[in-house]
Every structure is written in C-alpha cells, then in structure tokens.
Write a structure and sequence with these properties.
Length: 365
C-alpha cells in the first residue's frame, strides 16, 4: 500500500485481495446540502464483492463519481425506511439497468411491527412507483432481468442473525432503537475483517452484543441539542427531541465505542460546519479516547489486518458512467414485444429531421 497517495483516493485504484474499502457516499441528514448528501456507504472487498448500505437523497451522485460499474452494484442493505436512507434508490435501480446490470437489483431490509411498515410493503410500493420509468427504458435498451427487483425482508427483532452468506461474506442484522419498531444495524464479516453500521439510533445493548472488537464501527452522532437549536432556530426542547430523543449526540456514540472497542470509531449523520467540528469532537471525547474519524462525504477507509488508512476521494464533478464489468461481451436481446409500445397516433406526429435516425432496434438488429 506504500505506493498509494497518502492523502487522496483516485477512482480506479486497485483493491488488494485481502483488503476492505469503505467509502462514505453521504454523511448528512434529510436536509441535503451541496457538500453533504444523506446517508449512504459503499463497501468493496478484495474478492470483488460490493455492497451498498443505505442510499439516501443525493448520495448517488457521489456513488457515480467513484467510477464503479453499475453492473456490480446489485446489493443494497437498508437500515430503515426514512427517506434520508433510501431516497436515491430509484436512481440506482433505473440507471443500473441502463448501465449494464442485467440481473435483478437485490435489496435487504427489516420487517416492522405492522406489515404495511416493513420492507416487503415498501418494495411493492417502490416497484409500482418505478413502473413507468422501467417499462419505458426496457423498450430502448437490452436489460436481461435487470428491470426486476428482489426485496428480501427479514425479522427486525432477531439480534445477530445471518441475512446474507455468499462468497465467504457474512452479513448479520440486529435491532436498532430509533423512532418506532423496525430499524436495524448491520455487521459485515469477511477475510478476518469486519464492519458494523448503525443507520440511526440511540446507544443499545444490541450494538454492544454485536460489535465487540470490530475493525470499523460506523455510528450516528447527531449535532448536540444546544448547537442544533442554535443553528436551525428550533426551540431547545424540539431540538432535544430530535437530537437526543430519537438520535444520539457524539458522547453517546463515544460510549458505545468505549463499550465495543473498535479499531476505529466513525461518527457521521451530523451537519458538518467549521463552527461545529470542535464541539462535535469535544463531545465525543467525553466518553471515547481511542481512534476516531468524523466522516465527511467521500471519506475513504482502506482496511487490512495491519492498517486502517483514512483518505479523501478526489472525483470529477462531471463524471461519465464507468463501463460495465461485462463490457464487450454479448448483451441480452431486447424484448420490445413484452413492454408497452407508443400509440400510433403519437408516432404519426413525429417530425422527421434529415440525418437523424429515430428507429429503435437491438444492438445486432
């Protein structure tokens, strides 16, 4: 790893066979800002696997800029169904199909106390919502089964059960305490390396039981209530309801770090500003004196058994899509006969322009 840039990650950098790379796609809150998208994390492993944990509003722009082929981005794990944790799912779904993902988008997420609030119900509503978008694209691109989605709902109330076990990668889920029943946290284990991710929530015994001595523990750390009230002009009690009642301040995240002893404790889900960095870190240090990182969008962690290296990704502002990992191979045939066609009266209204071919045909057609 000595030949890598010490401070910056550039898209296309090779991942070592025994290495895990964790990239922050979004570290903020529902109030999306130009430099801080809502929650999202990309985990890449040396075996070639890639996983997305949450994909909140605005985070797909950072994901796209990293130059990862969409054909490989087919596994999403949702912690809960707040829009700042799933808001860019539609973009991943629709564009993945266009960009060479010829297999279904697979999504995992928790159940809830009521069926209508669980991931399965969300998945049906999501698929219905995307129907026009997907049907219209299927008529002009070859998609294989990339137009399909597979939503996998699991019991949110079971602590530490395995929900994914493929290619020597194990992902377990356990409950999180946030607003109402349903939210979960995840633990990923591979090749002797581990990561735990809390989407939203307060300190819990579930986290202590499942995150002991983990390599990287990513935990929310909301702006402390007094600072949040001052910055947002909310009454202090309302700010406290939000910051402490359903989220947690940095010192609460620090308490969990102290109880779990990760190699690196990462806090995120806060509103970064120059005036708040020191108060946030000071509050964390009340309870945690060990290695810590205050995550910002496009923070990159390279994790091996010997080192955890923190850098910042340097990405283009106007990135073009990366070629599919199957680029150059034969594409699936288009199935235009299986999707709705435009009415003839609309086709008849088209104005021809010399030199512009408008007939739609397959690659080999």
């Amino acid at each position: 790893m000595h030949d890598r840039d010490t401070n910056f990650f550039y898209p296309g950098e090779k991942l070592l066979p025994d290495e895990m790379r964790i990239t922050a796609l979004g570290t903020g809150m529902p109030f999306v800002r130009r430099r801080q998208a809502s929650a999202g994390w990309l985990v890449e492993l040396g075996n070639g696997d890639k996983f997305i944990f949450d994909l909140g509003t605005g985070s797909s722009a950072n994901l796209n800029a990293l130059g990862v082929p969409h054909s490989l981005l087919d596994k999403v794990f949702l912690t809960h169904l707040h829009i700042d944790h799933f808001g860019d799912m539609g973009a991943l779904y629709g564009m993945g199909m266009v960009r060479g993902r010829f297999t279904p988008l697979r999504v995992w997420g928790p159940s809830a106390a009521e069926e209508r609030l669980g991931t399965a119900a969300f998945g049906k509503a999501f698929t219905d919502m995307m129907a026009w978008d997907i049907e219209s694209r299927r008529g002009v691109v070859s998609a294989g089964t990339g137009w399909k989605t597979e939503f996998n709902e699991f019991d949110y109330s079971i602590s530490g059960h395995t929900i994914f076990d493929e290619n020597d990668v194990t992902i377990r889920a356990f409950p999180a305490i946030h607003c109402i029943d349903g939210p979960v946290s995840y633990r990923l284990d591979w090749n002797g390396l581990s990561m735990v991710y809390l989407g939203d929530g307060k300190p819990s015994q579930f986290m202590v039981d499942n995150a002991q001595n983990v390599d990287v523990l990513i935990h929310e750390a909301f702006v402390p209530a007094a600072d949040y009230a001052r910055q947002t002009h909310l009454p202090l009690q309302i700010a406290q309801n939000i910051a402490h009642g359903v989220h947690c301040p940095p010192r609460s995240a620090g308490k969990i770090f102290d109880l779990c002893q990760p190699r690196l404790g990462v806090i995120y889900h806060t509103m970064i500003s120059e005036s708040l960095r020191i108060p946030i870190l000071d509050d964390l240090r009340v309870t945690w004196k060990g290695p810590a990182a205050l995550a910002e969008d496009l923070m990159v962690l390279n994790v091996t058994k010997e080192h955890i290296i923190q850098r910042q990704a340097c990405v283009p502002e106007l990135a073009w899509p990366a070629p599919a990992h199957t680029h150059g191979q034969k594409r699936p045939a288009m199935e235009r006969n299986k999707v709705p066609q435009m009415s003839q009266w609309l086709k008849d209204a088209e104005i021809a322009v010399e030199g512009v071919e408008t007939n739609i045909s397959d690659v080999d057609g």
